[in-house]
Design a protein that fits this description.
123 residues, 4 helices, alpha+beta, 6 strands, disordered N terminus, single chain, six-stranded mixed beta sheet
């Protein structure tokens, strides 16, 4: 099968793979990599579609959180969207993000390049 300019709407993954779209879909839409797990309480993740936003950021929540908090990593670390977190929890995750900002940005870049990310685990 030759190269396809537009992916079929309901294509089998094997067809997408041969058309070159499989890696693109896998990289941008399927992963939700964990970047940092802090004391088994907070999980910092990014969505595959986050690479299309104009500022690098992470989403933070606990295991039972339905609506995650969104934290900008640039130009300064700050809350973009509170999600279900209280003001105290927002301050806590912002402080954690500040402390590990460089590692989060490095992991963020690895995800955008399609590389495997080693989860940073802090106990």
């Amino acid at each position: 099968m030759g190269r396809v300019d537009n992916p079929p709407v309901r294509a089998h993954p094997a067809r997408l793979r041969s058309a070159g779209w499989y890696s693109t879909l896998k990289r941008y839409f399927w992963p939700m990599p964990k970047l940092l797990i802090y004391r088994a309480i907070w999980t910092f993740i990014m969505y595959g579609t986050d690479v299309h936003e104009n500022r690098r950021h992470v989403h933070v929540g606990r295991k039972d959180t339905e609506e995650l908090c969104k934290i900008w990593l640039e130009p300064e670390v700050e809350v973009a969207k509170a999600g279900e977190l209280s003001i105290r929890e927002q301050r806590e995750v912002v402080e954690i993000a500040r402390q590990f900002r460089e590692q989060l940005l490095e992991n963020w870049e690895q995800v955008t390049r399609g590389e495997k990310v080693k989860i940073l685990k802090i106990n």
